[in-house]
Amino acid sequence: MSMARDQDQTALRQRIEALGPWFHNMNLQGVATAPDHFLGDYPRIKFDRFATALPQDLSGRTVLDIGCNAGFHSLEMKRRGAERVLGIDFDERYLAQARLAAELSGYDIEFRLLSVYDLALIGERFDLVLFMGVLYHLRHPLLALDLIHEHVAGDLMVFQSMQRGSSEVDPLASDYDFFQADHFDRPGYPKLHFIEHRYAGDPTNWWAPNRACSAAMLRSAGFEILQQPEEEVFVCRRTEAPRGPGAAYPTRPIEEQMR
């Protein structure tokens, strides 16, 4: 019996290693997927800092996990009883990892090959949207927030982004005179740092907002910040998006454009 268990464990380890490397460290039936992660037991150590800010009981709720990677957060939402969880990512290997993790955990979770720019194709809104660890990898981050608001966010969104720069947040005036520029140099003014080449060896790291910028971008896309349980994590509620000549998205309906 012991030999059979050892053989099963070896076969399981081979299945997991065949899909490596893994960015999410998860314990799948006794096998750790990324035991040597440079951030430690990630994303568990991060999730534990804000887990209590999320609804503990998601019975009857729907969840969309944007940029699901290997599915850690999708699994956590299913553990809380979510009726439907959809995880999307643009990387086939991540999706294969997520499907294996769901299978081994005994959870019915749908995973689809989509990017954040494809959200209109989903055609439904979700009670809870997770948008974590994605924004700084996007060339068009504010557009992504606009698309989430326009197409998939129904009520709550949990947002997380790598942040750099000051953690101070200055109060903002509704307008500034053209010749007033000192506020741009204050540490607590919203700043989105552009990464032209690489950061941490990753060419997909395009942006690094400071804390004030993360909050300002969320507000500008129509999300009310309810709480910030962890420095990089914001729990938000979908509200009315700003409108007017300064709003580049959404565009006019296509039938209007054709007139």
Descriptive overview:
The radius of gyration is 20 Å and the shape is globular. The strands form three sheets. The chain has a seven-stranded mixed sheet with strand order 5-4-3-6-7-11-10, with helices on both faces. Strands 1-2 form a two-stranded antiparallel sheet. Strand 10 (223-230) and strand 11 form a beta hairpin. It has helices at residues 2-18, 44-47, 72-79, 92-105, 141-152, 211-220, 254-257; strands at 27-28, 31-32, 62-66, 84-89, 110-113, 126-132, 153-160, 192-194, 207-209, 223-230, 233-238. The mean pLDDT is 93. It has 259 residues and is an alpha/beta fold. The chain contains seven helices and eleven strands. The chain has a domain at 115-170 and 180-257: Rossmann fold (3-Layer(aba) Sandwich).
Features:
259 residues; alpha/beta; Rossmann fold; seven-stranded mixed beta sheet; 7 helices; 27% helix; globular
SSE succession: HEEHEHEHEEHEEEHEEH
CA-CA gap between termini: 74 Å
Return the CATH class of the domain at 115-170 and 180-257. Answer: Alpha Beta
Major beta sheet, specifics?
7 strands, mixed
Structural class: alpha/beta
Portion of residues within helices: 25-40%
Q: So, CATH architecture of the domain at 115-170 and 180-257?
A: 3-Layer(aba) Sandwich
Rounded mean pLDDT score:
93
Shape: globular
Per DSSP, the total helix count is 7
**Residue runs with pLDDT of under 50 for 5 or more positions:** none
Give the total of beta strands: 11
Say what the CATH topology of the domain at 115-170 and 180-257 is: Rossmann fold
| Strand order across the largest sheet | 5-4-3-6-7-11-10
Question: Roughly what fraction of the amino acids lie in strands?
Answer: 15-25%
**Mind telling me the C-alpha Rg?**
20 Å
